[in-house]
Records
---
Amino acid sequence: MKLTNFRLETSDDAIALLVWDCPGRSMNVLNAEVIAELGKAVEAIIADAAIRGCVVTSGKESFSAGADLATLETLGHQLAAQSKSEGRGPAMAKFFEASRQLSLLYRRIETCGKPFACAINGLCLGGGFELALACHYRVVADTDKARVGLPEIKVGLFPGGGGTQRVARLMPTPDALQMLFRGDQIRPAMAKAMNLVHEIAPVADVVSQARAWISGGGKPVAPWDEKGWRAPSGKVYSGGGMMIWPPANAIYRRETYDNYPAAKAVLTCVFEGLQLPMDSALKVESRQFAHILRSPEAAAMIRTLFASMGEINKGLRRPAGQPATNLRRIGILGAGFMGAGIGLAAARAGLGVVMIDRDQAAADKGKGHADTLLTKDVMKGRTTTAERDRLLALIEPGADYAALATCDLVIEAVFEDRAVKADAIRKAQAAMRADAVLASNTSTLPITSLAGNAARPEDFIGLHFFSPVEKMPLVEIILGASTGPRALAVGLDFVKLIKKTPIVVHDARGFFANRCVGAYIREGHLMLTEGVPAAMIENVGRMAGMPVGPLALNDEVALDLAWKVLQATKADLGAAAIDPAQEALLEAMVVKGGRLGRKNAKGFYDYPERGAKRLWPGLAEMQKHKLAPDSLDVGDLKLRLLIVQALEAARAFGEGIVTDPREADVGSILGFGFAPFTGGVLSYIDGMGLTAFIGHCDRLALKYGDRFACPEVVRDMARQGRRFYDGVARAAA
């Protein structure tokens, strides 16, 4: 039997070792070829009377990253083609059978009558972990690199290889639902506590321990196939069950607002599956999986959060011909929260960090912030004291710009003031090596104008990090008018090194992300001035799919910053460039009321020392008009909050600020949380259909003003029957 992705080894103890090792890949993934080979190997093991059991492990540092989602996309394309040639019914039957092949294979392992043990030596996710769950015994390596989990929900799917049924039979129902809904990666100790694995062993011993379990008479029967087995939380239709399912349904609706069909499918699979024998339960899961695999939400999320993000992280925008950089040491100008966060991210990547501020005390404070963040990780068990101390030793705080002479890249992160930044840039340039790149972490000021203070504008670039740096995965790389390809390559390589996702945009006020975020916040402001209740604005924002309402978001980024940006825009572009109603609201909040947001514990919300934040009661008094909630169309409010962002993205695309819809979509989800189920701002327009989108814009423009005017780029595409992603398809072809 010839195997390409596996090695089947036998030994004198009659226990087979099946080693998963996909050639030419850094990680093992499941695709049609791998599944077919695994099936062959399993049948060979079952048929060989000389083999009494099998240990499944990996030949790589990790066990498996799960399914190759491109394979699942292919199934959808095949369905469309077969529907045309064979009819919808026969095509759907084939699609269903194809989509459940992995589930059937795993059930075959589980019921074959021979013991299978899984030796998990590292990361084990998705379909790879479902393989482990189908084995009768699981031992995981005691290493920080080892994680198990079912993260499919994060790309609009759910586990379709038996994961929903096995997890729901291994632990109490509430814990199972939480695991399936969150899609977290779980550390070994927690995995054992959750009953997901049987044992933890040193990485060098996982195979021998799995083999020992089989030698010791390991039983080849899953607990749920034993006579008399009972679910951990009892029957669904019982007193205990009724304490679980109504709250679970309420929590699902509160957290998703029915925007995520995969989450609803998880509820269905677990609810129905726990009432059925395992084989019937797996068929329920497979039917739901086939349904979700065809959903527009899954298609959009897979394309953006898997395919597009993968292409971006692999160097989609790296200029051709530029040699790989060898960054070893970076400089940070400004040791505030942003500077300290960037410095810590660089230290985590193994880089030396020079952190400069106006004096030693200010620089030390920045390192102290990094210390605080790392200490929190120590307290939560995410790192060790020794690792914290090692990372802190890489950060050198000081006030002398001369220390920048050893740096390969210097990032300016001082106060958002043109004069302050210009002074820092000039001082840094005087101290830096001639071949070092200088970057600015500005969030609003045009890079081209800041580059005027640099001796070498071609080596000056924007690196816009999002706050808080330690949590936000996106970096906007901004090209000034003179930015050269080497500076872009260095910027992209640095972002990759610190394990964040870059999008490349051209220079403009607000760049890309902040333009869209600003539109969202402004719409919340204007709704408030119209008389829409503040609580309704916030709830509708979350119903639309945003992580927080526009007023809460403004509190996070600071009201006084919004006021300063508004005034700077007015000074640069004239009074017609801003909305007077928004200006009046921010003036009342910031200038007259001293309400700056979360940073001074009072903004649109109040932030008591103890207890949760709450909307400031004074907002109602500020509204000259008050609209009755029952008189408002929630659907219309949701459309306003999403369309206003999509419009700004379309304008940025038309102006050449963002040039690739993949970057616009990935940036919108990672940067400001634009409704992930849509696939991002431009996928939202494509998914709605350009003609329908234009119709909504025209209606909203008549009712609310020119901010809803549809840009000509969208109208042109609609007339030509094109979409934003048509250009991507042609480029790929």
---
Amino acid sequence: MLPIETALGRLGSRFCLNLRPQSRQIAHGAMGRYLDEVADLIIGVESGGRRRVLPLCRAGEVFESVHMELTMTSVTFRCVSRPLRVGLDVTIRAPFYPRDVETCTAPVFYLDLTAAAVAAPPDPGPGRAESQVDVFLGIKRPGTRITAGDRGLDLAYTTRIDRQTSRSDEQGRRSPRARAPLITAVNCTERISPCGGHPRCSRGEIRWRVDLSSKPQTLVALWVARVEDPVFERGGQAHQFLSTTHHASLDTLAAWAFEHREDLIAKSRFFDDVFAGSSLSKTQRDLVAFGFQSYLMNTWWVADDRGNEWFSVWEGVCRFHSTIDVEYNTSMLYFALWPELLEMTFREWAHYEKPADPDRRGRPTGFLSHDMGSCQTADGQDYPHDMEVEENTNFILLLHALWRWTGRDRMAREYADLVRRLMRFIIASDTTDNGFPDKGVANTIDDAGPAIQFAKEQTYLAVKSLCAARASADLARQWGDDGLRAECDEFVERTMGTLEKEAWLGDHYAVCIDRSADGVIDPGTGQAAAGDTLEGWDAYSLYTANGLLLPMMAGLDTGLDLDRMRTDVRAALERARCEYGCTHSSADRSNLWVSQNLWRDLAAAYLGIDCLNESDRYWAFEVHQNRQQPGRCFIDTFGWNELEYYPRGMTSIGLLLAAVGLRVNAQARRIGLAPVRVPVRVPLLPFVDWQRRVVPWVEFILEKGRVACCLDDRGVLHGWAIDVGGAVRIESSTTEE
């Protein structure tokens, strides 16, 4: 594809390369996006006094032909200059391997530069092709001391923290509450080291002389970073990057990265191949890879001086830490690859519970904060208002699904009291006893109109509350809490009756059932909704089935009328769609959220509706935005809003789960498979044995007019009961390698 802005990031250690070919520059720094600097990454060739460069620096003539390729762990530029008769392939790789903390957090990038002679027309222009060419790699970065030596290029600079990450090149969507920071500046060092090839290092540049007369030549370099200083604070405690505990200095990190280069690249290629081997389209694979790196660049993994670890994810341009409604969507990554990261976040969220009024029986209730802080601090919510019902339902649905997905009873029992308080808050938020919450109902869709965003009796939140009640009842059954089960069952019965009698409009569910604007207040501004009736209360909404996805993934029967849900999804898809996806509703065309469209597509797949090709629209939008300035990597919103450098693109990894309708109930040791399309082939990501590099694959094909299932599990699914949804089972490998 033609080059677009993208990024390569590290898990939790912030080191980031934000590649901006559309503006011929990069943004780069050991502290990551919003604490980086605009710089020039100078990579190219020189032949016979003529130079060509990649479009990552602002000086020099760019290669006449430049194409880009993405994988989950790499970006490759394929460059050709016919006049120079030289081609240069540049691959920058960010090592990643699920559940391998050292590999994923190490602030390391690898660069491979492959130069080759290329054919040219008979008259390539003035001069002649040279067999001896120079390949060069260098950087220019403001405020940075760059020293060339035998080990390559050493960089040293100071990153200011107290500027609240407001950059001259990027204006934030919001300005988080200013604090007096404990940490005001950090010292950063980096090294770009050649790995062989007899280079010359001088004037901020590494240069190799190569002979292309016989075969292509590959040159290798590594790029490492080190931040010794504390970078994050919580409760008055300073935290360092977790990665600093693995390596004592920049020298030892560079030595480790050099020694383990082949292993780390092999792991990364294996990880890439797992995704490349699926039947997802090229467009879908690019979307997943693109979203993955935008997610990584937002992650923080730090530890205090007592070894207490903290993992959280910035909300892109907003920079809030692990916003619950955002993590609700990015949870597809945790379910697919790394559930322990979500477990860590559960423990953190629990510390930010807010007390609420007792319920009618005088029992305690509570609700969770929208976020845990912003920028470099996590001392409490910084978003200007709460989203009480929504965040409570998000937490309960995530906890229940992960409990069923992993079978970890201890994890679920740890939050028993918290779930009781959260669920009782949800029930108490229904003051009219119809099962539709009418208090604490502001939600995450904060660029929508009043009917979608803070109407008093929203169908979106009612369905989500019903699903949370079903999930809480299932957890209560495990805990032996018959009282909570009964409360949840009663609430579900009320909600179900109202949903079907008052919200169903014949071919879809209403956005809200209380259409009156009286008393509807925007909690962010304090302004009342205009008019007497909420515009769009009866529209076709993107969000009706939002709360259904996680219960369906966990094999939980919610009792909802799924035929009506299917009708609702199809109708909204038809009525609210535009060029790049569906807007909030058929009436509220203000903005479109890519991640919420993806979430709808996943839920639809579990309902048996194939919307997976809608992702072509989302990728077209990302390419359109990032082929021109300002770019800004994964952008979640089309419209007037700007949710950019956003982690929610990771919702797209759920395409591999939803395509085959993967349901997991580890409590019962049961797996369900129900493909939404045939043929389809995907890895069963939650069951990959990454340590032994064993991947179970499932493929559904048409065989003599019937759907057939071929499951190649290599023994990793031994002891699981597998339901293939009525497909003919074809025998395949089920033994360990």
